[in-house]
Design goal:
alpha+beta; 2 domains; five-stranded antiparallel beta sheet; 7 strands; 23% strand
Amino acid sequence: METNRSIEQVLETMDNNIVYKTKSSLAFPILLIVAGICFFSVNSFFQWSSSSIYPSLFLILGSIGFVVGILKFFFRKTRYVSAENHQKLKAREIYFDINESDKLLRLLTNGNYADINSLKRSVSSGLKLRIMSTKDGRICFSQIIGYVQLEYVNVNAPVQHSLAHVQVLNTIH
């Protein structure tokens, strides 16, 4: 069975002069780790009375800060950024009824984006149109993703849109 590539896979293969991949900053995780160590230090430097709540509070805050900081340090979010204007590509998803998959695929391949608003919407995740674009719309991709046999499957290959098509896609809610 042929599997279609995702939008992220297409973005990774693009030239770094168009789109590059970056991770979130290390400043906040390091700040959390330092704050956790500071709470541990404050707890050990002062002599507290036996009925004081501060030793327990500083131990809990130090533990939480240290553990969350370590987790955020190793598990940072990956972002795609336009090299031209340094805008992040943001993803949004619009859910449709699963019975509308053929119509949605036909409208997307023919370029009739304005008619997508007439399709039946859904609150569940049976079929979704994923749009990933910069704020100004210079880089925009869309893809139909369906929920088949307990997993999400890319129904079509990612489609890159022009600026005029992005303006129409932004009117879909």
